[in-house]
Amino acid sequence: MTAHSRRLRKAVLPVAGLGTRVLPGTKTTPKELLNVVDRPILSYIVEEAREAGIEHIVFVTGRSKGAIEDYFDHQIELEAQLLAKGKTDILEAMIAELATAGEMSFTRQMQPLGLGHAVWCARDIIGNEPFAVLLPDVIVDSQPGALKQLAEVYAEVGGNVIGVEAVPETDTHKYGIVDPETRDGRRIRMKGMVEKPPRGDAPSNLSIAGRYILQPEIFSILENQPRGAGGEIQLTDGMARLMKDQTFTAVEYEGVTHDCGDKIGLLRANVALALKRPDLGEAARAAITALL
What we know:
Elements: E1 10-14, E2 35-36, E3 39-40, H1 41-51, E4 56-61, H2 66-71, H3 76-84, H4 88-97, E5 104-108, H5 115-120, H6 123-126, E6 131-134, E7 138-141, H7 146-157, E8 160-166, E9 176-184, E10 187-195, E11 206-214, H8 218-223, H9 235-242, E12 248-252, E13 256-259, H10 263-275, H11 281-291
Parallel strand pairs: 1-4, 1-6, 4-5, 8-12
Antiparallel strand pairs: 2-3, 6-11, 7-13, 8-11, 9-10, 10-12
Helix pairs in contact: 10-11
């Protein structure tokens, strides 16, 4: 690890969003707890964070999101029933997901003011440390996990590290896009980024893909950040300002991204991850084939 890269221990998961793209399913169930195969979207994200060495996860929640906190706690009656019925494999899988003492913190985002504002809400818990941000409705199917790939680069180069993936040129107006300066394999030295550039006006086809490692100096920028696209405090605007003083490295990680905040994206994730399961893949393939 380089002298200028402080150890990455903490991560922010902004889970206050209303999940409007997958209504009515999210009317009473947080979007992040919708199932992909047999466990919630959020379970995959937390697993990815832990794999990357994250020791403390900060959830930025909102109203009606209490079930997220409950998911990572003991369910005493259910656990007792599983034990009594000898269903120890299911019980062990459930207990493996629980938060260890002090591993998780929960703070409220009182108004839906955007991703930049959500990250800022975690400032006091993160303190003066580098931290990861994982968008909790984006599952990246990869080995090793996307955040671990970023963390390995961070350990070498320090600064700020952003996960990116190539998208079709025709779709660049839908995403935050990085402006590359130089490229070495999957690593790209960045000189800028643009949030949803006009069609045909993007500096590259590399979209910012929901995984970040940021330095704590971003907080003082976000505190005074004017509202940007959609009337929200945009994290990309804050990162663009931080880039004037600190290095940003984009990493085109290996893996398949599933946007589970979208109805078809959620369906694709269910199908793709079911087909890959050693215990369910064959039966899933037969069930899907029977429908075609």
